[in-house]
Known about the structure:
Bound molecules: ligand FM0
Strand content: 25-35%
Largest sheet: 8 strands, mixed
Shape: globular
Number of domains: 2
Low-confidence stretches: none
Mean pLDDT: 95
Order of helices and strands: EEEEEEHEHHEEEHHHHEEHEE
Number of helices: 8
Helix content: 25-40%
Amino acid sequence: xxxxxxxxxxxxxxxxxxxGKRDESLVLxxxxxxxxxxxxxxxxxxxxxxxxxxxxxxYLNGKLQEKDAxxxxxxxxxxxxxxxxxxxxxxxxxxxxxxxxxxxxxxASGFAALAAAAxxxxxxNLDKRELSIYARQxxxxxxxxxxxxxVEWRKGSSHEDSYAVPIDDASWDVGMVIVxxxxxxxxxxxxxxxxxxxxxxxxxxxxxxxxxEDLKEIKIAIKNRDFERMGLIAERNxxxxxxxxxxxxxxxxxxxxxxxxxxxxVHQLRREGIPCYFTMDAGPNVKILCRLSESHKIRxxxxxxxxxxxxxxxxxxxxxxxx
Length: 323
Ligand code: FM0
């Protein structure tokens, strides 16, 4: 028996952050989150299940991966093998498409593409909602990459109802300018960072409460296409996530001096009447939510300080595609 499937999935940037799990093995989050899928970073993954292989093989960007990375993929494929009673090894070939500089999260697009490809290869034929539940178990943020535009990941009350829901296609002059500060490997993974924050930060409880409030508000702002309100909520929410990390023991910060330079430039641009708002994840890069029609103006200002190849303009991206 043999089965193969190939899929593409795009990365997403959270406006309301996911930071902390209530169940680590099932990847159930403490709070619901909301993101924008973007066009410029994506993963393409092919999965082949076949009795011809003696074990699972995982190639990333053409390079055969070692034990740890392969095990994470194997464990994820086991979900499909178990559901389909499929006892076959797999070959997984994945390519991450990241313009110019990398250092940007690829686990969201990576696990969403892997889930979509394994879904075809195994013949499991999950619908998108179920697929987001599967992707979630690979990496939390991958839950949201099943869909395009603005996507909510509902934390749910159990494994079965913690999935993504598309909210809006974001086709109303929404864009993002990404400033790549550096490509260095992060010292603390988001997985480890959020665990430390949950376990040690006295601010964690208020983070969760306030993220739920922010989510309610941002959904209203998106519904009303109130760009400024949406941006202000996103900027505040991101800062609160980072505040929860500063309260961890030992304290955690992903910021670099240049990150702060970008934040101050964003505030200066706002004072000049350009609505734009920053958000950061588990790394020093800064993502600026803006009107797509103003993204080049923002880029022009940033390249007065940064190298042009540090700046990437992103449009809203689509959900998964079967190739
Ligand atoms: O994307 O432990 O998905 O909501 O990017 O694999 O479930 O890599 F800023 C942090 C993403 C976290 C916010 O964490 O963790 C967001 C973050 P995993 P992820």
